């Protein structure tokens, strides 16, 4: 059953130089109890897409969609007051840098207790007990004493655990984690991902993990969406994306993952070029200027999504043998 369903989402930022089309007509869904990974390099639109759904963007952003349904509720025309009730209570979010997300002037306890008191309307004592329970749940030792400490007294990994504790304090139905382990070393990164997996199974919370690293979500997510240039270029189950990828951009991401078994003398293969300028997005496939398999049609027309299986979809002309005849002729015979 779908918990979140988004159709044809577009997000545009109006700046002095023009319009930045950060998200360009994406559709996605998150099932109840599912772990979904959204992958792409910086500027691909993955974080903006999730922030658009939560309406946490600045005033110069314009959000349009055919539908944004969460747990049976259409969020598109809801007031800011209604959305504040959703934030933290129904949808929790773990931001990328816990040091800038946590307020250095307030104790950890106060910051965990605040959403509990706002959303659950409980006394300070009850909120404190729930905060201690949350710290214990995310495996922070001596939670009773650490509740009174400040963010600078915690390590990076512990601060990230605190962010998770805040995000799950009201038992949200959906947890969005934006690069939850980027600033952490590999060992702590693995611990954080294991913790999130354990919490998902224990609380039956749906999780969306936003990352630029396919390796981070290899064993974490059951389904993966690959974004590039504000669009979805491929999506499928983890098995389909890792063992049968179809988009050249996905191939490039996979080739750039280091492996223990890789010959140390063998260099990783980078993706050449730079992401598209979304002030002037390309007319055709956004990946065409960087793709070694590009054809003339790729520059002229944006590819439609081809359905490979019930779960596997790709937007690439390589997968479109039945493209309209006029377009094929323009691409291959002119």
Question: Can you walk me through this structure?
Answer:
This protein is α/β, with parallel strands linked by helices and 334 residues long. The chain has one domain: P-loop containing nucleotide triphosphate hydrolases (Rossmann fold, 3-Layer(aba) Sandwich). It is 33% helix and 22% strand. It has twelve helices and 13 strands. The chain has helices spanning 46-54, 80-86, 98-101, 108-120, 124-137, 143-146, 156-168, 186-203, 238-243, 248-255, 296-300, 325-332; strands at residues 2-15, 18-31, 35-39, 61-64, 67-70, 73-74, 91-94, 174-178, 206-211, 223-228, 231-237, 306-307, 313-314. The strands form two sheets. An eight-stranded mixed beta sheet has the order 7-8-9-3-10-11-13-12, with helices on both faces. Strand 8, helix 8 and strand 9 (206-211) form a beta-alpha-beta unit. The termini are far apart.
């Amino acid at each position: 059953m779908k918990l979140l369903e988004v159709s044809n989402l577009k997000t545009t930022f109006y700046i002095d130089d023009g319009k930045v089309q950060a998200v360009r007509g994406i559709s996605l869904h998150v099932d109840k109890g599912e772990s979904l990974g959204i992958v792409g390099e910086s500027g691909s639109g993955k974080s903006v897409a999730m922030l658009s759904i939560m309406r946490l963007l600045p005033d110069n952003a314009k959000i349009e969609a055919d539908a944004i349904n969460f747990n049976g509720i259409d969020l598109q025309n809801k007031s800011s007051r209604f959305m504040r009730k959703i934030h933290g209570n129904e949808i929790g979010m773990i931001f990328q840098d816990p040091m800038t997300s946590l307020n250095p002037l307030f104790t950890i306890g106060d910051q965990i207790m605040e959403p509990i008191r706002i959303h659950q309307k409980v006394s300070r004592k009850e909120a404190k007990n729930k905060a201690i329970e949350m710290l214990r749940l995310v495996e922070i030792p001596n939670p009773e004493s650490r509740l009174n400490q400040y963010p600078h007294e915690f390590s990076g990994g512990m601060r990230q655990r605190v962010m998770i504790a805040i995000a799950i304090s009201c038992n949200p139905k959906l947890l969005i984690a934006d690069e939850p382990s980027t600033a952490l070393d590999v060992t702590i990164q693995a611990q954080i991902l294991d913790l999130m997996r354990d919490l998902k199974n224990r609380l039956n919370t749906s999780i969306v993990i936003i990352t630029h690293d396919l390796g981070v979500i290899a064993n974490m997510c059951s389904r993966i969406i690959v974004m590039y240039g504000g669009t979805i270029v491929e999506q499928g189950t983890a098995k389909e994306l890792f063992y049968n990828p179809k988009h050249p951009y996905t191939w490039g991401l996979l080739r750039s993952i280091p492996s223990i078994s890789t010959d140390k003398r063998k260099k990783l293969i980078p993706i050449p070029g730079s992401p598209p300028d979304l002030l002037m997005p390309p007319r055709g496939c956004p990946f065409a200027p960087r793709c070694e398999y590009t054809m003339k049609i790729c520059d002229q027309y944006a590819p439609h999504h081809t359905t490979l299986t019930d779960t596997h979809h790709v937007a690439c002309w390589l997968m479109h043998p039945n493209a309209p005849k006029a377009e094929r002729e323009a691409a291959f015979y002119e």
